[in-house]
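User: Okay, second chain of the day. Same drill as before: sequence in, structure tokens out.
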Amino acid sequence: MTISTSTISEPSPRSVSVISEYGKQNMFAIETEIQMETNYTNYQEEAEKANGRWAMIGFIALLGAYFSTGQIIPGIF
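Assistant: Same drill. Structure tokens below.
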């Protein structure tokens, strides 16, 4: 009779499952590290550019809807 010993390795943090208070398995229980941005020197300028770009996209979508359907907001006006 041969007795073999095996080394049981610790499970990796990704494979650990957590059971919630309702008895269900929570496979998304491992949280990522928080990433903080400390340099806010151009935040306002970048926000203005992003808002302007989204406004331009919305205006182009409005024109596309008007030209294709003849209504300002299709289904309403």
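DSSP finds one helix and two strands in the chain.

User: Thanks, on to the next one.
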